[in-house]
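Weekly modeling sync, notes
Attendees: S.R. (lead), two postdocs, one rotation student

Agenda item 3: backlog of single-chain predictions. S.R. asked that every request posted to the team notebook include the full sequence so nobody has to chase files. The rotation student volunteered to paste the first one in as an example of the format we agreed on. Action items at the bottom.

Example entry:
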Amino acid sequence: MDAIRAAGQVPGPDDAGFPAHHAPRCATLGELEARLTGCRACPRLVAWREEVAEVRRAAFQDQEYWARPVPGFGPADASVAVVGLAPAAHGGNRTGRMFTGDDAGDFLFTALHTVGLASRPGSGHAGDGLSLRGVRLTSPVHCAPPANKPTPGERDTCRAWLAAELDLLSPGLRVVVALGGFGWQALLPVLADAGWDLPRPRPVFGHGAHVLLPATVRRQELRLLGAYHPSRRNTFTGRLTLPMLVGVLREAAALAGLPAG
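Predicted structure, as returned to the notebook:
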């Protein structure tokens, strides 16, 4: 990457510098999504997402997998951003839409629908008519990782996409909800680099955590909320219940000035 920069060349999709070079230059979310979906900067993730698409799960043998980075989903004027972990191998990696086609997505969309922020409680496929109101879903890592565990290096390489997305949302963004500790930890440096002052020591993740980031010269006031991730492990064991997630999302909607159910 250093040699490419020294030569004045623009990093290509297979280069580790591709996100950092291109993401900040995107003027709209549409442009960002177009750039992001062509990214191949993390060889391990590229190999895994494409292997999964080739082998496929038995239930989806007749379906063509998306098998590319999954962009954020939701309106460009969203005042709430919900940040997860990464697309699921047979969920977003299959459907091409964030949090769509798996149990975690169904749980999340049921909660969003209960609060009045999603048009329906399910998330079957990208053409199912689901729409969001006032909320956008995204993640720190946009490719499905093996065992749902991105490496720190993959997280850092992908960080530029999240930073650019939050920057494009920032004129109207009022609340960010981090789903799980990974999303929380990935968000903190992004928010700091974007111009928000983080408290010291850095705020600790927890379900129901609520951190006020005061307005700065560059940014308006922002609220950071924490919620357990709606993974099968959390929902099946009862660590996260639907009323618990609904409670956090309803708080987020209220703080953002969105009418909630």
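Discussion: group reviewed the output briefly. The CA atoms of residues 81 and 220 lie 15 Å apart.
Action items: rotation student to repeat for the remaining queue; S.R. to check formatting next week.
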